[in-house]
Amino acid sequence: MASGSDRSPINRSCDHCRRRKVKCDSTSPCSNCHISKLLCSYAVPPKKRGPKFRTRSGHQGRTPQEPSPAQETTRHPVSPPEQQETNPSISPTSALSSNIAPSPHFQTFEQPQERFEGPQNGIRPSLISIHEHLVSSIGEVLPHLPMEKIVESCLDLYMQYLFPLMPLIHEASARNYLALLRPEAYVSQTVDSPYWVDTAEHLDTGTRDLSSIRHFTLLTAFCADTAFVLPSDLFPWGHLIASHFLRASRQALNLYHDMDIEDPDSTSLIIRYLHTNSTHAAGKTRVSWHLLGECLRLAQEMRLYDSTSLDGLDPVEAQLLQNIFWQLYTGDKSAALLNDRPFALHQFNIRKLISLPHSLPGGHSLLDTRRSPNSELFESQLMTGFHKCQEIWNLAFELLLSLQRIEQSGPTPQSPLLTPEEKSKITEAYLRYLSTLDDLPMWYRNPVTFEATPNKDQVYRNRCFSAQRANLQVTYHCLKLIILDAFSGLGLSPLLGVMDDALMITLRKIEIAQDMINFLQEVPFESLQANGEPCVEKIRQVGANLLQIMQTIGNAQIAGRAELYFTTLLDILTKLDSKASDSLHQARG
Predict the structure, then answer these.
(1) Within this chain, do residues 330 and 420 fall inside the same structural domain, yes or no?
(2) Confidence of residue 417 (pLDDT cuts 50, 70, 90)
(3) Alpha carbon distance 74, 188 (integer Å)
């Protein structure tokens, strides 16, 4: 083949351009391949013109003119993705085209249809088909952006905005896996990484098959979650690619679904959790709940609540399993308290104490410390916020669980009997909840501004800390209101320091709403956006309480104050482009 300087004309499009469905200038190499640093290939026979042949009975599938995925591949060496120095002060999408108008509606995703029964059937043809359809679909909506740049942008955005909230990825490995999603990925690939599996050479060897497709499914799940969760302000073309990555990831998981349940690892949980997030952000709450339920059951079967379940595991695998368990623990409590779902991960359900620690001694770093601005200290700071969130949920849950026991043990649900000792325990537990944010480190306590320092690394870190701070504060105020609502409903608000009087309880609820609003107006708005639909649900809970006060309170002054705060929350929800704001608008009438 001619060198890049000798670009002789050819009378047909190269395979790479045909797969991406972009115009090929028929030089050798063509402009598209030259930019992507690829070698043009011409292995795919040109399609014949005219009507297609009918498929014979018993041989359904491709027509004679349609080459199979295996026929469309040719082998060329692909170098691993280079470690590039990123500028943390610049959005990962800033260097890309941002002129595409965002749409408020995501494209619908298809349900996976194929089922993989075992390695003896071979998964390569199906995986290649999924991969080619993904590349083709992305090429149609973003024809001028290389696939590898799109995936790299998804990963950069995840690390900046979502990793602080969901530390579920080993960054160095993920960046090596990026080659799996390149258009030429299933031609040939070699990546120098201890976690890499060469899919081109080992796709027919059982466990290698499983490892390879898990990596593909995980990467596409991360891309889907990032594209669905982050708004257009942070990810201008995310809405164009979200459904395509989610469909590819779910179809790929479906290829090895049964095998994955029989032999699960950290990816089994993380992939399903990311699918849960994506479908939730897409407005499919029932699908999201079903996927979360499967994830919770799998965590129970893996006995992750038991600290001994991590014995003998690779340090990276153990760290990821620990993090996903506590992420699921929080998700379980959130679904129960915010959406009235039953609890799953609790000692009463699993009939054993949860002995898994929040942090492993000498835990393995998940950030790639070779890349700026990452460091072990920075990751340790992020994990402080991650574990503090678990603490908030756990304290609130224990308070509400004690209330449930009281309600069930009383002579009637409305008149529970409490001993002085029980009252004292509840009050002490509530005081612990109130003080849970008092010991926050300085990097969470001080309001952060992104332009306050010229240090680019610190700007990046401040964004991460601010996203965590938004999560902690919004969660704290929301659960504080839920606790007050539950205790006052049984006439037990005095245990929380509030007189058992409807007017006093209402005033305290309005104060909690005011505290949340003050924070929402102070924190950088992109920090709220990064928290996605879970943040929206918590704000909606407070808004629903204010709406109830407006409709039931007889005091005009209090009703007016509640309406003022309700309108403010409604404006914030509208800016967050949330479906919750629509429901509150309708409820308000």
Answers:
(1) no
(2) confident
(3) 8
